[in-house]
Amino acid sequence: MYQIKDKEKIFIYTGPDGSGRKTVAKMVATAFDMETVLSYTTRSPRHYEKNGEDYHFVNEATFKHMQDQQEFLESVEIDGFRYGIREQDIVNAFQNHDLVYLTLNPEGTEKLKKMYGERVMRFFIYADRDTVIKRQKDREDNEADIERHMTHYDETMAYKNNCEHAFENYDSPQISFKISELIESFLDRGFFVTDY
User: Fold this and answer.
1) Are 120 and 12 in contact (CB under 8 A)?
2) Per CATH, is 9-38+87-186 categorized as 3.40.50.300?
3) 162: helix, coil or strand?
4) Most distant pair of Cα atoms in the chain: their distance
5) Residue 14: which residues within 8 A CB-CB, separation 6 or more?
């Protein structure tokens, strides 16, 4: 497993599908020299997603080959689709950046937290059930996908208290600003701030 060096930190955004975690993550990354690491997945891209920008979309055989080669740091299966983080991608991201961010489901988030401990800061981004459904409809997800996402809503929300920080995303720029301030103060002091 890759050994994270002194200044290297991983920030993970998690939360329900439709919470705006990716939007927030991208906004925060522009305030810092932060590199993203994308997951590999066997699911098909949604109409607004691009390969190499949102995920690395691969077929089942490719994913299995990568798994057999032990390329993944962690992998999970959700609703029959596989998702994985390639260790080499984290290593590559850290070659030019001290700060790396990922957008993951709670399972993936928990696995990386267990591996890297205090080097990982988790941001739980959420919105109420109706808002999440509305956002998924606004981005034109199909009904079957929305229904599938919502079957995980309560289970995902239950992970909120495990994370170092949680933000209700009623306004992405506002939440991004708050998270940026938090990261700024954390980097200045060099240790994690917890608000328990």
Assistant:
1) yes
2) yes
3) helix
4) 46
5) 21, 103, 104, 105, 106, 108, 109, 122, 123, 124, 125, 156, 159, 163
pTM for this structure? 0.92
Task: Convert 68-88 to b/e letters by CB count within 10 Å (16 or more is b).
Answer: eeebbbbbbeeeeebbbbbbe
Tokens standing for residue 31: 């305030």
Per-residue model confidence as pLDDT tens digits over 35-73: 999 999 999 999 999 999 999 999 999 999 999 999 999
Is residue 86 within 8 A of residue 73, CB to CB? The reply is yes
15 residue type, one letter: G
Helix (H) or strand (E) holding 26: helix 21-31
Q: Which two tokens stand for residue 60?
A: 């089942």
The two tokens of residue 99 are 């700060």
CA dihedral (177, 180, 182, 185) positive or negative: negative
